[in-house]
Fold this sequence. Notes:
The chain has one domain (2-296). It contains ten helices and four strands; from the N terminus they run αααααβαααβαββα. 33% of the residues lie in helices and 9% in strands. α2 (14-23) runs antiparallel to α9, α5 (96-109) packs across α6 and α7 crosses α10.
Amino acid sequence: MRQLFDTLIPAGSQLRDLAEEICCLSPNLFHTGNHPPFNFLANSELGAAWHPPQYSPSDIAIWKSNYVDRPLLPAENNGFIYQSPTRRGLAMIFDPLVDAFIGAHLKSSSSIPSGCTIIVLSDYFPLHLSVSSSTCGDWSSCESTQVLQGNVNDPTTTRLFNTLFGSGWKGQASRISAEICRQKLLVWNFLPMFRGGNSAMGLTGLPTSPHWQALCWPFLWNFAAAVGASRIILACSKICLKASSTGPGNIITSSKPHSGPPLFPSPPKCVTKVYRINHPYSWIGNTDAASLKSILSGDPCS
């Protein structure tokens, strides 16, 4: 799958440029808190010719940064690059879940169709719950393949897939890919990194800087602009929406009407609708799943 990404999303493309921006971030605002996130995912280097790292934070940091002749600084140990030009990350381009949905489109039609709907989740699993337990050489390619084969068990992805693909999707690779393409779906993680710590939910593992969310909005909007998305469904946790924003940003259409100041900066012109639903991990009963289905069908609840 990596060769497919290298060929169809080449160096200099909007998506590769976005990956480079993310993977070469400075640690100023993201590397904060007792368990700061790991910036090991986004990748703008083509090819898998490099030797993959051992699955430990220190080894991945050395592999990512090329610093091998002195002890790593704390920020380097979390993969934030501010002195090295290295643009590498573990992913094929963003993270295995995002890449899986992109990959379904690339395999089907060699491109991402315009007018897609992007479902925005919060962040990627903690490093210690994913890469550290992997035995696969090309980790991201293997993980993305597992997603498209329906070999997922975490509550967030399971509830999302139940809603998107109906019952009986596990192990049904052709069905999952076909539905991703038919419904023109993409996903994005608002914080495009491994969260820190060992918990997959809550504030632990996220930056404590009061402004990190404001830095993530441009990543989402640039992704939307690069793929020509028309709808955004914010299914991220509430902490992601606490950024102070400027501009109108008031085109939100939600299953829960919103009033007050805008939740986000203005999206690119290609985005015509933005919806807000709960994060799948917190779904109770069928209400939230029904809201997502209603939005995707073009008849959102009000």
